[in-house]
Amino acid sequence: MPDKKIKAVLFDLGETLLDFGKVQPGQIFCQGARLSYDFLKSCGQPVGNFKYYCLCNMVALQFRRLISGITRNDFNSLALLRWIGVKKGIRLDGQQWRHFAWLWYEPLYKVATVEPDLKETLTKLKNSGLKLGIVSNTFVSGDSLEKHMEQVGILDFFEPRMYSYEFNFRKPDPRIFMIAAERIGEATEKIMFVGDRINMDIEPALKAGMRAVLKTAYTNNGKKIPAGAWKINHISELPALIEKINSQAVSN
């Protein structure tokens, strides 16, 4: 009889492991613009007028997001912002550019929360022998996301960590789920995918042959859970759910 037990868990990031809630994009952008502008100015860089700085970056980011929506191919915001800066004569070393990207992201970091027992839950999953990984649709630099995860003490739990801007496709494209399965080293039927979006996480994970768990979030309020998926309110419910599923797999 084939082993049908869950051996690995892949997580979405935003509203799954890191909870941002409903943010005001314009306000977050302006805060990031001010932080990054002040940093460049403190480094003696030719930043020019703040309003013009905001406008240039906003137009570039909105244009690239529009293109991404059409092509379904995310972009690396750090690479874009760096390209804009270099064109204006800004010169920073690698560490400074990473800090620059973090300053753009920092307002989001400040509003984000995680479950108080998240680290303990992930430790339970790891100690039970499960492999853990991340697959996230994002244009935010992986350096910033990983700094955030490091700050809340969860970064080292996850390998692989996959960000959509690194690929020519993103969820719900089945290829990213297949690559994730290869990188985590398990067959799809032995992988559980946990996410907050039905169309981007749950439905494509089920189509890929994975088990799927919907994490309660504002992004799925009032939406029907697809057949074959489970729903949890907190990540802390996962260890018991996986134990139950694996026990049933053995008995069947």
β-sheet strand percentage: 5-15%
- Low-confidence stretches are none
**Number of beta strands:** 6
Residues in helix, %: 40-55%
Between the first and last Cα atoms, what is the distance in angstroms? 9 Å
Secondary-structure element sequence? Answer: EHHHHHEHEHEHEEH
The CATH superfamily of the largest domain bears the name HAD superfamily/HAD-like
Structural class designation? alpha/beta
According to CATH, the fold-level topology of the largest domain is Rossmann fold
* Widest sheet, order of strands: 3-2-1-4-5-6
Largest sheet: 6 strands, parallel
- Rg result: 20 Å
Shape: elongated
Number of helices: 9
Overall pLDDT score: 95
The CATH C-level name of the largest domain is: Alpha Beta
Count of spatially separate domains: 2
Q: How do the strands and helices of this protein lay out in sequence?
A:
Blueprint: E1 8-11, H1 25-42, H2 50-71, H3 77-87, H4 94-111, H5 118-127, E2 131-136, H6 142-151, E3 161-163, H7 174-184, E4 191-195, H8 198-207, E5 211-215, E6 230-232, H9 238-251
Parallel strand pairs: 1-2, 1-4, 2-3, 4-5, 5-6
